[in-house]
Design goal:
The radius of gyration is 14 Å and the shape is globular. Helix 4 packs parallel to helix 5. A five-stranded parallel beta sheet has the order 2-1-5-6-7, sandwiched between helices. Strands 3-4 form a two-stranded antiparallel sheet. About 40% of the residues lie in helices and about 15% in strands. Helix 2 links the parallel strand 1 and strand 2. It is an alpha/beta fold.
Length: about 140
C-alpha cells in the first residue's frame, strides 16, 4: 500500500535543503513569501530563476542542471512555482539529478499546480511527490 499524502508531506518537511523553482524577487509573490517563511524556520533555500542573480540574499541559478555538483548533492526537495504546463521539464531535470546524485529526494508542486504525468514520472523514478499543496501552509499546520 502506498503511503498517504500526509505521511509524504511529513517526510518532505523533514528535509531542509530546498530548490525553489520560480522563486521571484517580488516580495508580494507567493514564491517569495513561502521561501522567506521557510528560511525563517531554518530551511536552506536555493533559488532557481533564470531572470535574477539573487533572491532573499541567496545566489540564484537558471536551472537545476546549472547548479554546481556540490549543491546538486545537497538539494533534497524541488519546490515548483510554475504553471502546470511548465512542470514537465523541471521534473525531468529533477529526475536526471536524482539518477546522478541520489538528490533531490522529492518534488513538490505548490498549491494549484497539478501535473499527473510528471508526478507519475517522478514517482516511478523514486522521488516523493506532492501536488497542489503549499509548503508554508503544511509546515504551519504541523509545527
Amino acid at each position: 500500500m502506498a503511503p498517504d499524502v500526509d505521511s509524504i508531506v511529513d517526510r518532505i518537511l523533514g528535509m531542509h535543503t530546498i530548490a525553489v523553482v520560480g522563486l521571484s524577487k517580488d516580495s508580494s509573490k507567493p514564491s517569495n513569501d513561502v521561501a522567506s517563511y521557510l528560511m525563517k524556520r531554518g530551511y536552506r533555500i536555493v533559488p532557481i530563476n533564470p531572470t535574477v542573480d539573487e533572491v532573499l540574499g541567496q545566489k540564484a541559478y537558471p536551472s537545476l542542471l546549472s547548479l554546481p555538483d556540490s549543491l546538486k548533492r545537497e538539494i533534497e526537495v524541488v519546490d515548483i512555482f510554475r504553471r502546470a504546463e511548465d512542470v514537465a521539464p523541471i521534473v525531468a531535470e529533477a529526475i536526471k539529478l536524482h539518477a546522478g546524485f541520489e538528490h533531490p529526494k522529492a518534488v513538490w508542486m505548490q498549491l494549484g499546480i497539478i501535473n499527473e504525468s510528471s508526478a507519475q514520472e517522478a514517482g516511478n523514478a523514486g522521488l516523493l511527490v506532492v501536488m497542489d499543496r503549499c509548503m508554508k501552509i503544511e509546515h504551519s499546520r504541523r509545527r
